[in-house]
From TrEMBL:
Spans traversing the lipid bilayer: none
Domain of life: Bacteria
Record organism: Noviherbaspirillum suwonense
Protein name (record): NAD(P)-dependent dehydrogenase, short-chain alcohol dehydrogenase family
Record bears the keyword Oxidoreductase: yes
């Protein structure tokens, strides 16, 4: 592998200021790509050489701003990582979810990617190349029903859509794949662990163990790091994965059980 395997490539990473998105941005930039990262808030410590765009990509207006700015300032994209996603609904299970909760989950976890793909694909097709990665979740197959029913269902839709897109655009030179992370200890996850520890009056290690247990355990014995996921995303974007299409790579330390 060349140290600068993405030299000359223009990459857009949504949600590129924290967690896995930030790790992907850092890795692509280190390997030579020109990287544009989006987030609703600009980062306090921006990475040198990375261009940041402030926009809420879960809205049509925010996605429109990203598309206009990228096309005006960078022209065609070579690499697109649809990383934005998440859930902010309260616990209480399926019956506690309102239409607005469902709508928010679908806009953030599905439509943000759909709109950006729809905008950037025609130019990728015109240049005859491009690679897209969608960040799904193991929850699309292993939903945690207490608080993330809508999130898990939206991620399942994203995975299905990613496969359909791969079938449609593979013949036109575009590679499209997905990455399904398991429990990854991002800053948000660390905060959750601290909160659980406080709530249960236990140490962070015990709270982390309880979270791992709630997933049925992690055979590798630890949560993943953002860098674990970034490596796989970079591989899928690279020419090293030239014959990988319509796949969903699971990065979960073995969490998903065999059925
Ligand atoms: N962490 C896990 O264990 C885990 C497991 C499975 C799947 N995932 C998936 O992996 C992806 C990344 O998760 P993460 O844990 O790395 O997230 P994170 O640490 O919470 O970071 C999220 C990033 O996305 C940005 N963002 C969030 N909503 C946005 C919006 N509407 N428009 C633009 N930017 C937005 C955030 O910046 P702002 O807040 O400034 O907008 C931030 O840069 C998500 O799709 C998530 O569902 C995570």
């Amino acid at each position: 592998m060349s140290a600068l395997e993405f030299h000359g490539k223009r990459a857009l990473v949504t949600g590129g200021t924290k967690g896995m998105g930030e790790a992907v941005v850092r890795l692509l930039a280190q390997r030579g790509a020109t990287v544009i990262a989006t987030a609703r808030q600009l980062p306090a410590s921006p990475l040198a050489g990375v261009c940041y765009l402030q926009a809420d990509v879960a809205t049509p207006e925010g996605a429109g701003t990203v598309v206009k700015t990228v096309e005006r300032d960078f022209g065609v994209l070579d690499l697109l990582v649809n990383n934005v996603g998440g859930s902010s609904v309260p616990g209480g299970g399926a019956l506690a979810l309102t239409d607005a909760d469902w709508e928010a989950a679908i806009q953030t976890n599905l439509m943000a990617a759909v709109r950006l793909d729809r905008a950037f694909l025609p130019r990728m097709v015109a240049q005859g190349s491009g690679a897209i990665v969608h960040i799904t979740s193991i929850q699309r197959r292993l939903p945690l029903y207490e608080s993330t029913v809508a999130y898990a269902a939206a991620k399942a839709a994203l995975a299905n859509y990613s496969k359909a897109l791969a079938n449609e655009f593979g013949p036109r030179g575009i590679r499209i794949n997905a990455v399904a992370p398991g429990f990854i200890e991002t800053t948000a996850a660390s905060a959750l662990i601290e909160q659980m520890a406080l709530h249960r009056n236990v140490g962070d290690d015990e709270a982390r163990g309880a979270l791992m247990e709630s997933l049925g355990g992690i055979p590798l014995g630890r949560p993943g790091s953002p860098e674990d996921v970034a490596e796989v995303v970079a591989f899928l974007l690279s020419s090293r994965a030239g014959f990988v299409q319509g796949a969903e790579y699971v990065v979960d330390g073995g969490t998903l059980p065999t059925v």
